């Protein structure tokens, strides 16, 4: 058997923690939902949610 190494694209994310994620657009979607909806036709879509506020800083 031969093994092939495939590279997986990665990104780094930081969060503002300013409450903007609680605001909704005209369709009732929060910013993260809206970004995911805009990219719904992509072959791969990885969605990582921001950390839970109660667990930040533990």
Describe this entry's structure for a reader.
With 58 residues, the protein is low in regular secondary structure. Helices cover 14% and strands 0% of the residues. It has one helix and no strands. The termini are far apart. The model has no long low-confidence stretch (mean pLDDT 77).
SSE blueprint and pairings:
Blueprint: H1 31-38
Could you give a short description of this structure?
With 58 residues, the chain is largely without helices or strands. The protein has one helix spanning 31-38. The termini are far apart.
Essential attributes:
58 residues; 14% helix; 0% strand; little secondary structure; 1 helix
Our estimate of the beta-strand percent is under 5%
Radius of gyration over C-alpha positions, nearest whole angstrom: 16 Å
How does the major sheet shape up? none
Task: Give the overall form.
Answer: flat
Average pLDDT figure = 77
Helix and strand element order: H
Uncertain runs: none
Helices and strands: which structural class? little secondary structure
Number of helices: 1
How many runs of DSSP E, i.e. beta strands? 0
Distance between the termini: 45 Å
In terms of quaternary structure, the protein is single chain
Fraction of residues in helices? 10-25%
